[in-house]
Amino acid sequence: MAWFLFLLVVVAIVYRMTTAEDRERLLQRAVLVLRELIAAARRQRADLDPFRAALRARTPILILTPAIVAVNVAIFMLMLFGAGALSDPATLVGWGANLGPRTTNGEWWRLIASTFVHTGFLRMAVDIVVLAQLGMLVERLVGRLAVAAVYCSAGALAALVNLSAYPMAVTAGPSGALFGLYGLLLASIVHRDSDREDGDPQTVAVPPSALLWFIPAAVMFIVSALSNDGFAFTADVAGLLVGLLGGFVLTYGIISHPPPPRRVLVTAVVALAAIVARAVPMRGITDVRPDISRIVALEDRMTGVYQIALDRFKKGAMSAEAVAQLIDRTIVPELEAADIHLRSIHGVPPEHQPLVADAEEYLRLRSASWRLFAEGWRSTNRLLRRERRDGVVLSDATWRTQVEAQFRANAAARGKAEGTESASLKALQRIKPSSE
Asked: CA 53 to CA 58: how far, in whole Å?
């Protein structure tokens, strides 16, 4: 959209800097140029009639391209009028978009399904124009089986590359698959020239003038792909390479005949093997944010448990040893269990690894701080027992006040405990935003 806004600004500036007479002359010139372009296009179109007739003779009925276009449009309309906003990641994932923890944990069908999911009307419109124009040509030129093999292989590999770059992002769109079709067309043009040098009969060859009709849609498509921040351009390049490499095999002798089914099958199997080899190391990507949320909630819960015990101690309903045992038997084991679970998680994506490191640091420091607090309470309990054993007679309120004062006066133990607690809570603050 940035380029479109820039164009509008340029038009507005030109409009303000010209007079009415200048604008009228410019409009007349533009109309003349447009008429000349239309006339030239009609002449070129007439010159391409033999080429189009040869394509129709090779593949009389188009099936695959209209079917892909229909599925894309149908899914977009269902998304547009269905529940959930079109821009909502949950809506996109619900319709088959890629998300690392979902795709790499058994939902590999999303590699193909995501090529039928669009994130906006403008992007969908550009993709459909390119697919209809490009797909009709290559389907008639190389056959629907070859187009299906390249489209699916390029789309799946592009989706994998995109997952590798953005494992926690929701990504969708047929850009990689369409780049694969462009690669297939380029490969067929290369083979056309080589076949002509070998003396093969030229029954169907793409003339250079036919390629001129693809330039406007190709420019719009590339600009649209580059302006899409949610899709890695390296994934589009991967799709183009799949189309080129597969096309060099599939389009050998293309001016004489479409590739035989056996060659298409072998190419598809090789492409599938490459996709599987790329996918295997990516298995089991984990979203650790739910686990981080549970750790944040654990801090609040354990603090609440401790506060209840502290209130009971102040009221004389709980001893200092009981408070220490509560820390040792309830609070610390909960933190240790959370730490063990966090360390057992595999497939943490790179962007979540600092988050996991902070969470592990918090759990380690927090457990240490609670142990220091437990030791402080035991020191308090030993003081209480000594005073009772020595026969010191104090009122209940008085000796509890002295016990609390003694615990606060234990500067070394208390300072170390609170310092460790402070460090752990700083680590907790770093992971809190991800749990919200």
From this structure: 9
